[in-house]
From TrEMBL:
Residues 41-91, 100-150, 164-214, 238-288, 297-347, 361-411, 421-471, 477-527 form the BPTI/Kunitz inhibitor domain. Residues 1-18 form the signal peptide. It comes from Trichuris suis. CDD domains: Kunitz-type. This is BPTI/Kunitz inhibitor domain-containing protein. Keywords: Disulfide bond, Protease inhibitor, Serine protease inhibitor, Signal.
């Protein structure tokens, strides 16, 4: 009987599917997959590649609030909302009570960082792992900020003077954070395990931070301490931004400026901060700026010990050319340039003019100053064919090939890529005298000629600007992808004329041609809009 009753209930239950929700006479499909994941709140605002100007909202993780930005109209990412309310609903949790009475709330995201919250049960501020979005207002960047907000009448923060005289104190909590404290008896910094709350200020993230604070403090108390020279700072501190710290003193200190690649002054507040801080410029330069003993161009490629990788250029004596390399961001040497042009200007003034990789076949044959006798091939622009010549073995130019086949493969393709711009200046059949412009592939410049007024060919422009717009862009964008002879692997973009779009490729680091761009946007601007 009971089983029959159960079947009856199941039979009369309404069937609900995920495809539609009935709210009236018509059914509306609800796409639950379109609900944004809270992790989008962690993304940086992205205007996208288009050029419109729509005011949208995004969640600013630093301010922990929604803010306006200008959206281009296409692509971008999920941290974009039409209304501030939508942004706040997903990313900012509304609070209903005093911040200090709210529970610890890590939030749903996973960009973990250590923050502080007030624990009513222990009547103290404690550390916790915050996910980066939502959460609540019981969430502070520092212990001092938490105490100032929630413990005004209870307990003052520990004083920074005499910090290093205090014994190690793990505190009552049960976390296991490896920290450093200064042992006054042994006059050195030692490891201990911090529980995560209370304790005292003799508590440092690293040995370097402990020694920087306590050796100075003990000196001010007149206590002599043997300096442990093995505790040299890690060169990676040179990558940090200068940090004045939360205190209000005004000490002039030195830090390494990674942009200028030199040590500079800043004002330090007197407590906390980070390792990119030196009392003397000499100390800063010793760690972060490597002294050089010879001409920059004769120094070897030197990436340095740090890991903030960026692409730079150095002069390679072996190949007599400037080549790209990955620089770590600190130390290194002076054979380190921001651009290929800067490298060439410094290191190749007296050696040889840089051969232009575009227009190779427009150059005349050049045996060079040396006396060897190597049979080679060059492309004769006047006769439009490859011919033999004797190469001396050094310098010369790039119109220099091992075989006739290699010469024709390179130069017939290059001439084809010039199109109308490869045609000679042609005055035409008439007797007029009009000042016109044509592109000279030998000099790779637009030059004037006198046009008769009829006939001629298409390499004929009314202005220099029109000539350059057509022919210089065509020269660049028509060239085939060329990784160059070097063995590096640097992500770049080139215009694929066959596919009519910009595509990525790995550049070897030297030579190649002009159809090479740092970004897709730069490639699109130069070539894609022209040839689509």
């Amino acid at each position: 009987m009971e089983l029959e009753f159960l079947y009856a209930i199941l039979f009369f239950l309404p069937v609900v599917t995920h495809e539609a929700v009935h709210t009236g006479p018509s059914a509306v499909a609800v796409d639950h997959s379109a609900v944004k994941d809270p992790s989008v709140c962690l993304l940086q605002p992205d205007a996208g590649p288009c050029r419109a100007a729509h005011h949208q909202w995004y969640y600013n993780i630093t301010l922990r609030e929604c803010a306006l930005f200008v959206y281009g109209g296409c692509e971008g990412n999920g941290n974009r909302f039409e209304k501030k309310k939508e942004c706040r609903t997903l990313c900012v949790k509304k609070e209903k009570k005093d911040a200090c009475k709210q529970p610890k709330e890590p939030g749903p995201c996973m960009a973990l960082s250590y923050r502080w919250y007030y624990n009513e049960a222990t009547d103290d501020c404690e550390m916790f792992a915050y996910g980066g979005c939502q959460g609540n207002e019981n969430n502070f960047a520092t212990e001092e900020e938490c105490r100032a907000k929630c413990m005004k009448a209870q307990k003052p923060p520990s004083t920074s003077s005499g910090v290093c005289m205090q014994p190690s104190d793990s505190g009552p909590c049960k976390a296991r954070h490896p920290r450093w404290f200064f042992d006054l008896d042994e006059r050195k910094c030692k490891k201990f395990i911090y529980g995560g709350c209370q304790g005292n200020s003799n508590n440092f993230e690293s040995k370097q931070e402990c020694e920087a604070k306590c050796l100075e403090e003990l000196k001010s108390f007149g206590i002599c301490v043997a300096v442990d020279h093995s505790a040299v700072k890690d060169p990676s501190v040179c990558l940090l931004q200068p940090d004045a710290g939360p205190c209000r003193a005004a000490h002039h200190q030195w830090y390494y400026n990674i942009t200028l690649r030199e040590c500079a002054l800043f004002v330090y507040g007197g407590c906390e901060g980070n390792g990119n801080r030196f009392e003397k410029k000499k100390e800063c330069r010793t760690l972060c700026v490597k002294k050089e003993k010879k001409d920059a161009c004769k120094q070897p490629k030197e990436p340095g010990p740090c890991m903030a990788l960026s692409y730079r250029w150095y002069y390679n004596e072996a190949t007599d050319d400037c080549e790209m390399f990955a620089y770590g961001g600190c130390q290194g040497n002076e054979n380190n340039f921001a651009t290929e042009e800067e490298c060439r200007a410094k290191c190749m003034k007296a050696q040889k003019p840089p051969s232009t990789s575009s227009g190779v076949c427009m150059q005349p044959s050049d045996s060079g100053p040396c006396k060897a006798r190597h049979p080679r091939w060059f492309f004769d622009l006047d006769e439009r064919k490859c011919k033999k010549f004797i190469y001396g073995g050094c310098q010369g130019n790039s119109n220099n090939f091992e075989s006739k086949q290699e010469c024709e493969q390179k130069c017939l393709e290059e001439l084809k890529s010039f199109g109308i711009c490869g045609q000679p200046a042609d005055t035409g059949n008439c007797r007029g005298k009009e000042q016109k412009w044509f592109f000279n592939p030998r000099t790779r410049k637009c030059e004037t000629f006198t046009y008769g007024g009829c006939g001629g060919n298409s390499n004929n422009f009314g202005s220099k600007q029109q000539c350059e717009t057509v022919c210089l862009d065509e020269l660049t964008c028509n060239q085939k992808m060329d990784v160059g002879p070097c063995r590096g692997s640097f992500p770049m973009w080139y215009y694929n004329r066959d596919g009519k779009k910009c595509e990525p490729f790995n550049y070897g680091g030297c030579k190649g041609n002009a159809n090479r761009f740092d970004t897709k946007a730069a490639c699109d601007k130069k070539c894609n809009r022209r040839y689509r």
